[in-house]
Structures are given as C-alpha cells and as structure tokens.
Write a structure and sequence with these properties.
The protein is mainly alpha-helical. Helices cover about 70% and strands about 0% of the residues. Helix 1 packs antiparallel against helix 10 and helix 3 crosses helix 9. The two termini are about 35 Å apart.
C-alpha cells in the first residue's frame, strides 16, 4: 500500500479544505507524514542489504499492517464488510496495492539507490491520471497531460546516456519500481471506480492488507522467506520493522489529514515524500547524484504540480 491520491478521498467542504485545526498543525502533520513515507525508502534499502528476502519482507509488511488496521477498526467501533463484492474488491486492491508492488519494490531497492527509487515512485500521480483518462475519471486537460509528459521525460533522463546509473544492466532494475508505480496507480483507479459505498479508506486499507497477507504469506512460508527474528541481523530486521511502522503511520495519517486539511492541501505530501527519500539517501548512505537526477527530480515536482487535484467548489 502506498501514497493514496485524490481519487481515494472522501468529499470535503468548499475549497477542498476543512476548517478547524490551525495551519501550523496541518503543515506539521503534512511534514511528518511525508517524511515518514520518504524515510521508509531508506529503511527498505537497509533491510534489503541483509538476508531478508523481498517476498518475506512484503508478507511481513502486509501482515503487521493488517493487524494494526484491524485494531484501528475495532477501536473505532467499525466493522469490515465481507460480502462477495467486498471480497473481490479487497483482493484486487491487495494485489495491486501491496502484494505485487511491495515485492517488486523490495527487490528493486537492492540494486537502486534510495534517491532513484524515491524519484521513480513519484510517478504514481502521473500514471494514475494516465489510467484514469480512458475510464472517464479525468478529463484530457492540456495541463494534466503536460504533467504526465514531464513524468515520463524525467524517467527517460534517468536512463539516458548522461544518467547516473552505470550501464543498462543497472538501469534495467528501474523497470521494477516503474511496474510497482503502475500497480499503485491501478489501485487508485480501482478504488475510485469500484469502492463500495459503505466503506471508507480505513476499511479499504484493512481489507486489502488482509488479502495481501493471504496472497504473500503461504508462498513466503513455503520458500522459507518469512523473516525469523534473529536470523537476518538486528540492523536488517530493525529496518524492516521501522519501514512497516512508518508506512502504517503515514497511511493512517494521510487519511486523517485529508479529513482535516482537504484533498488539495494533502496532495502536497508527494513533494515531501520524494524530497525526503533523496535527502535521506544522501545523508545516511552517502549517495551522490549527477545533474540529470536533479533535473529529473525538478521535472517530477513540476509534473506533480500539474496533475494535482484542483480545489472543489461546493458552493
């Protein structure tokens, strides 16, 4: 499960922002949520530097996340509907939102820098718009199409002749996070199109994480890929746990912030996620990037701005 987009969000009052909390609290929450998601890339890299297998890491993340989501449902007095329609919805979202992309992302981060992985994952909003167009969820506006074009240009810069990735062998690993980003975008479109009316983001998150656990845990157990405490070293295991906790905190915080600050305000978290990931890789892993990476990052930020949701006039 990754950063939701405006397609997930429940309606909010006029202007796309809900009155109530002081702006300083909202900005602080935005910074904390974005930083948590960005730092999860760093901890993923550390976890995958040990003996933990990507499939096992994805299964662990789904299982712990499902447990936390179930506890949150119970504490709020809500229930998880389990009709056939709900189960199919959970299964599809679990595959696209966790099982498939998490496994690919953990494998890719073994080979790519934290900064590059963070930049690639920023293409989710652009890919979401691209998939939403043929389904009628987005209009073919020049502004948003330009944002999509900027996102693809940024990726081409990362694999071009002047790129910081030495050789096609390493650049080929970029295909995995791109497929992960495409899966996340597909999840966003499925949620926008087919989410049952009687559930919200918390029920959706709980259901898809339970479904992902059922998909990932059996093969991970069969292959002996589930992390055993003490088997991979405290650094890798601690990093995996930190990554899982940060992702859960960020998702629940994002849902809360949409309610408090609105879709337009909350969508700015994408800049913080990507920026934090790039800076964390530089600060803690001594990653250094050439001019093409910084240009790609600037293009992606511009693309995010162009595809970001507009304020909603409900007056």
């Amino acid at each position: 499960m990754t950063l939701p987009t405006a397609l997930d969000a429940a309606p909010v009052p006029a202007g796309g922002r809900k009155a109530g909390l002081p702006p300083l609290i909202l900005w602080g929450a935005l910074l904390a949520i974005g930083s948590a998601w960005g730092l999860s890339q760093l901890f993923s890299k550390i976890a995958m530097s040990g003996a933990i297998e990507p499939l096992g890491a994805a299964a662990w993340q789904a299982m712990v996340g499902a447990g936390v989501a179930l506890a949150a449902l119970r504490l709020t007095g809500r229930r998880l509907p389990l009709t056939q329609r709900h189960l199919v919805f959970y299964a599809v979202c679990g595959l696209l939102g966790t099982a498939f992309p998490a496994t690919l992302s953990y494998e890719a981060i073994r080979h790519l820098s934290v900064g590059i992985a963070s930049i690639i994952i920023a293409t989710v909003p652009m890919l979401t718009v691209l998939l939403a167009l043929p389904m009628g969820l987005e209009r073919a506006e020049a502004k948003r199409l330009a944002g999509v074009a900027l996102g693809f240009t940024a990726i081409l810069l990362l694999i071009g002749p002047e790129a910081a990735l030495p050789g096609w062998g390493l650049a080929a690993w970029m295909i995995l996070p791109l497929l992960a980003a495409l899966a996340y975008a597909g999840e966003n479109v499925i949620i926008a199109s087919y989410q049952p009316a009687d559930i919200g983001p918390l029920e959706t998150g709980c259901g898809l994480l339970l479904a992902a656990t059922l998909m990932l845990l059996p093969p991970a157990l069969a292959l002996g890929a589930v992390p055993i405490p003490g088997g991979a070293g405290w650094a890798a295991e601690g990093a995996l746990l930190a990554c899982t906790v940060l992702n859960i905190f960020a998702y629940l915080g994002y849902v809360w912030l949409i309610r408090q600050g609105g879709v337009v305000f909350t969508s700015q978290v994408g800049y913080i996620v990507t920026g934090t990931g790039v800076l964390a890789g530089m600060a803690f892993l001594d990653e250094r990037h050439g001019w093409t990476v910084w240009l790609a990052l600037a293009m992606l930020f511009a693309g995010i701005a162009l595809v970001s949701p507009r304020p909603v006039d409900r007056g």
